[in-house]
Amino acid sequence: MAYKNPYDNYLKSKVxxxxxxxLTLMLYDGAIKFCNIAMEAIENKEIEKANTNIQKxxxxxxxxxxxxxxxxxxxxxxxxxxxxxxRRMVEANLKKDKEILEEALGHIRTxxxxxxxxxxxxxxxxxx
Length: 128
What we know:
mainly alpha; single chain; about 85% helix; Four Helix Bundle (Hemerythrin (Met), subunit A)
């Protein structure tokens, strides 16, 4: 009988019980993690590892784009930012350029911080 990794069980439970807002935050964290792994892989000339992790981060950005609700005007602005981040990630992957990836990562971190502020404001407004 194979035993599951307790961390895997914890992670699955965390995802299954998370709110949509928390899931979005987890996705931002994942994209940041994958970019950091890819940058380290680029430094170490681990081309396949860099490629794999940049693609993981790109899939998260694609998910963000696909779930935008364009009935809100801000969605078009978010879409432009996500498109730009995605294009920079493609370029970073093609060139295995750490600096370009760092730029994309900076934008992802900014979007994450914005999301944290949105979460905070929605909690504050929900209490009133």
